[in-house]
Specification:
The complex is a heterodimer of chains A (277) and B (349).
Chain A: H1 3-30, H2 43-49, H3 52-85, H4 88-99, H5 106-117, H6 122-129, H7 143-153, H8 155-168, H9 171-179, H10 184-212, H11 215-222, H12 229-239, H13 243-276
Chain B: H1 7-29, E1 33-38, H2 42-59, E2 62-67, H3 70-79, E3 89-93, H4 94-102, E4 131-141, E5 165-168, H5 173-185, H6 194-203, E6 207-211, H7 214-222, E7 228-232, H8 233-241, E8 247-249, E9 256-264, H9 271-280, H10 284-290, H11 309-313, H12 318-323, H13 329-332, H14 336-347
Parallel strand pairs in B: 1-2, 5-6
Antiparallel strand pairs in B: 3-9, 4-7, 4-8, 4-9
Classes of the chains: A mainly alpha (277), B alpha/beta (349).
C-alpha cells in the first residue's frame, strides 16, 4: 500500500464511523414498524408515497432551494466579478465582508433578519415613514421572506467558489476578446461567464443543499405554516415520536437531493471539458 | 523564510493539545457533577441562578445544565436506552411522564429520601416524581393595542383581530393544550377532534403567524407581530420582565394547565445527588424565592404562600391552584402524532 493511500485511512475510518454507519442505521430504521426495530416493513415508504401531502412538502422544499439559489446567484455573481477585477487591497476587503457572516452563528444571522423583516422592522418602518405603504407589509412568515433570508445567509457559499474560478481565468483571454472587437458585455457573456461555469455550478450545489436543509432559517422565518422537509422530519421524530417514519422521510429527501446534486455535478463536468477546449 | 514542522514538533504539539483538552475533566473529577435537564427560558435561569448555588452549598457538587424541551429529553433518553443516560434528572411536563414511565426511562421517586416531598399539596405528590410547578394557559394580549382584557377564547375569532392572532405548532405543550381545551369547549370528545379543527379552520383568516417553536413564538410578541394568542403564564411573566408589552387574561371558562415535574432517570450516574437536587426544587424557602419575579414559578409546596402576579391573574389561594383543570393525557398522548399530522394538513399554506 502506498504512503498516500495509507494516509487516507484515518479519514476513511472517521468517515465510515461518523457518517456511513449512522446512515445505515437510518436506512434500517426506516424499514421497521417501530423504533424498537422488531418488525421489518415497507409501510413507512408506502405511507410517504401514497399521500400527496408528503410530496407537496418535498416539492415545496426542492422548489424553495431553486428560488433561493437563483436569487443568491443573481447577487453573488456580480460581487465575485467585481472582487476578481479589483486591486489586491479592495479584493481582500470584499472577501473579508463576504466571509464575515460565516463567522457568526446562523441562528444569530437569522434572528437579525427577524428584526429586519418584522412588522416593527427596518423595512416596514422605512416604507411606512416614506409613505410607500399604509400598513406594514407581511414579510416574516412568508415564502418571499424565507427566500430572501436564505439567499443572504448562504451567500458566502456562492461567492467563494465563483471568485476562485474567476481568479484563475487567464486575463489575456479577456484582452484577446476586446482586441478582436468584443465590448465589455460581449466579453462577459461569451468569455467570462462560460469559463466561470464550473465555479457557478459548484456554488449552486453548495447553496442549494444548504438552503433546502436550513432548518433554523426555514422555521424561524417561515413559521409552522410553511412546512419544508427538515421541519416535517423534526415534527415526526420529536413531536410525534414516530422515528421509523421520520427516518423514511429523511431517506427519501436525501435521495431526492442526491439526484439533483448528481445532475448538477454532471453539468459541472461538461462545463469543465468546455473550459479545457 | 519557510517554516518546517518536524514530526517531533507535531507529536509534542498534538500531545500537549490532547492533554489540554483532557485537563478540565481531570480537574472536574475532584468534585462531583450532576447533569440535570431543564427547560429553556425561565426555568434554566432559575436553575442556574437559584438552585445551582444552593445545591453547591448543600452538597459541594456542581450542576451541568442540559437545556432541552420535555419532548426532546424523551427522545434523547429513548436513544440512549440501555446505555448511560445523557442526564441524571429529567424535567418533564405531565404528558412526557406517562411515556417515560411506560418505557422505563425514569424510576419511581424515592420520596423517603426527599424531606420536602410530604409537604407538597396532595395533587402534586406523584410517585414518579414531585410536581415542582404548574403551567397555566390563558389568552395573551398586547395591552398597547387591546385595551380591555379579552374575556373569552371566542375573542380570538373576533374579525377585528384579522391577521393579528398567533398560534404555535403542536410540538409544543402549549399548542396541544390549547387544541384540547378548544375541543372541549366546542363540544368535542377525546376521540373526536373535529370540533376543534373546525374552529381552527374558521380561525385561520385571523391568524397572522403560526410559530414553529416557542422561541419563535416569543419573538412574535417581541416584534409585535401578533396582538392576541393563547399563551402560558410563565412565558408572559418572562417577556413582561424584559419590557415586552404582553399581559395574560384567564378566560371566563376557567384556567387550564398541567404540571411540571422532576424525575430520577433510570441508570442515573449520580442518583443520590439527583434526589437532593430534585428536593431543592420543592424546598419551601427556594419555592418562595422563585415564585417572585423574574421567575414567577407557581409554588407546589403547601408551606409557600401565594403572592405577586400569581394572585392577581391566577389564584388567590392554594385551593384555587388545585381547581385548575387538567387534561387526560393518557387519552391525548397516543393521538399526539395523528393530531400533529392533521394540524399540519389543515394549516399548511
Amino acid at each position: 500500500m502506498s504512503i498516500e493511500s495509507r494516509l487516507v485511512l484515518p479519514l476513511a475510518a472517521l468517515f465510515v464511523a461518523c457518517f456511513v454507519a449512522p446512515l445505515c442505521v437510518l436506512v434500517i430504521l426506516s424499514l421497521h414498524g417501530e423504533a424498537a426495530m422488531r418488525t421489518w416493513t415497507l409501510a413507512n415508504y408506502a405511507k410517504f408515497f401514497t399521500d400527496p401531502f408528503n410530496y407537496s412538502i418535498l416539492w415545496d422544499t426542492l422548489l424553495l432551494g431553486v428560488k433561493a439559489t437563483l436569487l443568491c446567484l443573481v447577487f453573488a455573481y456580480p460581487i465575485a466579478w467585481i472582487c476578481a477585477r479589483s486591486g489586491p487591497r479592495l479584493q481582500s476587503a470584499i472577501v473579508f465582508l463576504v466571509i464575515l457572516p460565516i463567522l457568526t452563528s446562523v441562528v444569530v444571522r437569522t434572528f437579525s433578519w427577524i428584526v429586519i423583516l418584522g412588522r416593527q422592522g427596518i423595512i416596514n418602518q422605512i416604507a411606512l415613514s416614506l409613505g410607500l405603504v399604509n400598513e406594514p407589509i407581511r414579510l416574516l412568515y412568508t415564502e418571499t421572506g424565507v427566500v430572501m433570508v436564505l439567499a443572504q445567509v448562504q451567500m458566502p457559499l456562492m461567492v467563494l467558489p465563483i471568485l476562485t474560478v474567476l481568479l484563475k481565468i487567464d486575463p489575456n483571454l479577456a484582452d484577446v476578446s476586446r482586441v478582436l472587437g468584443a465590448g465589455e458585455w460581449r466579453t462577459l457573456w461569451r468569455v467570462t461567464i462560460p469559463l466561470s461555469l464550473p465555479g457557478v455550478i459548484a456554488g449552486c450545489i453548495l447553496t442549494y443543499t444548504a438552503c433546502i436543509t436550513a432548518f433554523v432559517t426555514q422555521t424561524l422565518i417561515g413559521g409552522a405554516r410553511l412546512i419544508y422537509m427538515p421541519l416535517h422530519i423534526y415534527q415526526q421524530a420529536i413531536g410525534a415520536n414516530n422515528w421509523p417514519f421520520a427516518a423514511a422521510i429523511s431517506v427519501v429527501f436525501m435521495v431526492a437531493v442526491l439526484l439533483i446534486v448528481a445532475v448538477l455535478s454532471a453539468a459541472a463536468r461538461r462545463s469543465e471539458t468546455y473550459v479545457q477546449v | 523564510m519557510t517554516h518546517h514542522i518536524s514530526r517531533r514538533t507535531l507529536l509534542t504539539g498534538g500531545a500537549t493539545f490532547g492533554a489540554a483538552i483532557g485537563m478540565p475533566r481531570i480537574v472536574k473529577a475532584q468534585s462531583k457533577t450532576l447533569v440535570a435537564a431543564t427547560f429553556p427560558g425561565t426555568w434554566s435561569e432559575a436553575d442556574r441562578n437559584v438552585i445551582a448555588p444552593a445545591f453547591k452549598q448543600a452538597t459541594g457538587a456542581s450542576v451541568t445544565q442540559s437545556i432541552v424541551l420535555g419532548t426532546d429529553q424523551l427522545a434523547r433518553l429513548t436513544a440512549a436506552k440501555g446505555n448511560q443516560p445523557p442526564f441524571d434528572v429529567a424535567f418533564f411536563d405531565t404528558p412526557q411522564v406517562l411515556d417515560a414511565a411506560r418505557e422505563g426511562l425514569i424510576v419511581e421517586y424515592p420520596s423517603a429520601k426527599s424531606p420536602n416531598f410530604k409537604d407538597l399539596l396532595p395533587k402534586f405528590q406523584d410517585k414518579w416524581g414531585p410536581k415542582i410547578t404548574m403551567q397555566v394557559i390563558g389568552i395573551g394580549y398586547n395591552p398597547k393595542s387591546i385595551t380591555s382584557p379579552p374575556k373569552s377564547w371566542d375573542d380570538l375569532w373576533n374579525p377585528k383581530y384579522k391577521g393579528r392572532v398567533g398560534l404555535t405548532a403542536l410540538n409544543s405543550q402549549l399548542g396541544i393544550a390549547f387544541l384540547a381545551e378548544l375541543n372541549r369547549l366546542k363540544g368535542g370528545t377525546e376521540t373526536d377532534f373535529e370540533p376543534a379543527f373546525k374552529a381552527l379552520r374558521e380561525l385561520l383568516p385571523n391568524v397572522g403567524a403560526i410559530a414553529a417553536n416557542l422561541g419563535a413564538y416569543a419573538t412574535l410578541w417581541q416584534q409585535e407581530q401578533i396582538d392576541i394568542a393563547p399563551y402560558n403564564f410563565n412565558f408572559v411573566q418572562t417577556l413582561k420582565a424584559k419590557g415586552v408589552p404582553v399581559e395574560l387574561s384567564i378566560p371566563d371558562t376557567g384556567a387550564v394547565g398541567w404540571e411540571t415535574s422532576l424525575h430520577l432517570v433510570a441508570n442515573a450516574v449520580e442518583p443520590e445527588l439527583a434526589v437532593k437536587y430534585i428536593d431543592l426544587h420543592i424546598d419551601p424557602a427556594i419555592q418562595a424565592q422563585i415564585s417572585k419575579p423574574p421567575y414567577d414559578a407557581i409554588p407546589t409546596n403547601s408551606k409557600v404562600a401565594l403572592e405577586g402576579a400569581i394572585t392577581t391573574s391566577l389564584a388567590t389561594s392554594q385551593a384555587g391552584l388545585e381547581k385548575v383543570r387538567g387534561f387526560d393525557w393518557t387519552k391525548l398522548n397516543p393521538q399526539r402524532g395523528a393530531l400533529i399530522d392533521r394540524f399540519n394538513r389543515e394549516i399548511k399554506i
